[in-house]
Amino acid sequence: SLSLENKRVLLTAAGQGIGRASALAFARAGAKVVATDINANALKSLAAEANIETYVLDVLDGEAVTRIVSDTGPFDVLFNCAGFVHAGTILEMSDKDLDFAFDLNVRAMVRTIRAVLPAMLERKDGAIINMASVASSVKGVPNRAAYTITKAAVIGLTKSVAADYVGQGIRCNCICPGTVESPSLQDRLRAQGDFEAARAAFIARQPIGRIGTPEEIADLAVYLAGATYTTGQAYAIDGGWTI
Ligand code: NAD
Q1: Residue 39 gets which letter from DSSP?
Q2: CB neighbours of 230 closer than 8 A, spacing ≥ 6?
Q3: pTM confidence score
Q4: Do 88 and 95 meet the contact criterion of CB atoms below 8 Å apart?
Q5: For ligand 1, which residues put their CB under 6 angstroms from it?
Q6: Is this prediction's ipTM beyond 0.85?
Q7: Which of 243, 142, 136, 138 lies closest to 202, judged by CA?
Q8: Which atom of ligand 1 is the closest one to the Cα of 147?
Q9: Measured in whole angstroms, how far is the alpha carbon of residue 231 from the centre of its chain?
């Protein structure tokens, strides 16, 4: 069976949603979790948990990323969870939105991976997990141009790291959820005007008949941290959306 006993885990965007559920799931699996988020307030309720230390970290800030890794590393596991969903087609997407989406959804992962990888290579052991989405190269989803473009890049990033370091003890996989309960999902539903109708439409696109829970996604992240025979894969966990 998989054990994460005493593994050190760095987690981004741990303040709410899937990141928060993952911090708790990694801690329950015995790992020592460095849970980070840009929002200090959101981290407060995690700080009291056993096996979890919290730090404010803006993943857009390269120096801050380097600093947190040198202060709290080395890490056995990195889970890149930070990401943002823009609405809109390619014609509605501004260059600014696309730049921001690339910076947060892709380059932030490049920053954290560059920061943790040298120590992982020294120890010839490391698991990197990136948060992608089925809205990516897996599936075209309407009205999600900047998001789909950048989450497809996350899959490319994942495969690149996996291919370069597969012989040196490093595994890199990504997770492709469908629709998952989270504070930002609530915001997106409210932004559509008719909350109940928007929620019903999101449920209807999940053949399993409901929206996923953050805990269901967190369990896959914990699995991938310890699964020693898989790398370079994009794991769909989407209630049957891509059947
Ligand atoms: P969320 O969107 O509700 O929360 C995001 C968290 O990221 C917040 O705590 C926020 O403070 C933090 N954050 C934002 N900018 C940051 C920055 N610059 N540095 C550090 N932290 C920052 O959570 P969620 O919906 O669970 O999404 C988490 C990840 O899962 C994202 O990458 C998202 O794209 C992906 N995802 C979510 C869904 C879904 O339906 N919820 C589906 C597929 C993929």
Answers
A1: -
A2: 171, 173, 224
A3: 0.98
A4: no
A5: 12-13, 15-19, 37-39, 42, 57-60, 81-83, 85, 104, 131, 133, 177, 179-180, 182-185, 214
A6: yes
A7: 142
A8: 34
A9: 16
